[in-house]
Prior knowledge:
By secondary structure, this protein is α/β, with parallel strands linked by helices. It is built from twelve helices and twelve strands. The protein is 41% helix and 19% strand.
Amino acid sequence: MRRITRITTVGIAAAALALSATACGKSSTDSGSTPSASAAGKAAIAYDIGGRGDQSFNDAAYEGLKKAEDELKVKGAEAEPGQGESDADKVARLTTLARAGNNPVIGVGFAYAPAIEKVAKQFPKTTFGLIDDTSKTGPNIANLVFNEEQGSYLAGVAAAKASKTGTVGFIGGVEVPLIKKFEAGFVQGVKDTNPKAKVLTQYLTQPPNFDGFSKPDLGKAAAQGQLDKGADVIYAAAGLAGSGAIEATAKAGKWAIGVDSDQYNQKGLAAYKDHILTSVTKDVSDSVYNLIKSVKDGKPQSGEVRYGLAADGVGLATSNPAYSSMTDLVAAVDQAKKNIVDGKITVKTAP
C-alpha cells in the first residue's frame, strides 16, 4: 500500500501548496475536474486522533481500505493526523489527497466535518466520506453514521449480568455528543437489567482537549480509579486511550469491554484478551469498503448512510469463549437485541 504516514502540519501545507502551483493557474473550483477514481482506482482515508495502530476506531477504517485494495484492486492511501492540529491542517491534508486523484477521500471521525465541508465544495467530482457526523452535508458527501447507543445498550446488559459487585464503569475519551451516545446506551442497558447496579462514569478530557482519545495512560488511571471503587466490569469508549483502560482492568483480573473493533482479536492487546469479555463493534470497516465500492461502481453514496443494530451495523463481539459460556448473559443480550430491533426498547442517545 502507498502510505502517507504521520505527515507534519508543515509538510501537509507544503504539499498542498506545491500541488496548487502545478495546477497552472486553475481556480479551486477547476480542481474539481480531477478524474473520478472509478477510472483512476485510488482511494484515501485520513485518520482520526491516535492514528492507525489504535487497536480500535482507526484500525477498523484501515481494514475497510485494505479489503478494498484486496477485492476491488484500488490503490489505497493513508494520512495520519498531527498532534494538536487545526482545521486548516485537516483542510490541507484532504486537499492533498483529493488533488492526488483519490476518490473517495474519507475523513475518519467527526473532527473532519468542517474541513470536509470546505474541501468537498472545491472538488465537486470527488466523493468525500465523513464518519460519525451528519452536521455537514453536500451532494458529494456521504455521512457514514452508526447507532452506537444500541450496541452500547447490549454492552450494558452484558456488564450487569457479568458483574459480581453490582458496580460497573464507563470511561469516555472526550465529553462530546458522540461519546455521550455510548454512555447513554450503556447506562440504560445496565439499569434495565439490574436497577440496583451502580455505574461509575468518567470522561478523560473536555474539548478542545482531545488527548482523551490518544493517551493510554489517561485511560489506565481512570480505570484504576474505578476498580478501586469496586467496579468489576469497565467499558471504555476512548480510542487509543481505551487500551490503557483494558490493560488496567485485565491486570486486576476484572472484565473489560472493548469498542469499535473486536478488541479480543487485536494483536496489540493480545496480552489482555482473556479479560476482554466482549466489544461494542461498529462496522466502520464495511462503511469504508462500501463507499469505495460505490464510487468504483459509478454510483457513489451520498447523504446519510446509517448502520444500526437491525443490519448488524453495530453489535457485540462474541470471540471470547468466556462470553459464550455465560448462557444467561448471552440469552439476556439476545433478547435485548430482539427488543430493540422490534421497537420494544428505544435506546436513549443522551444521558
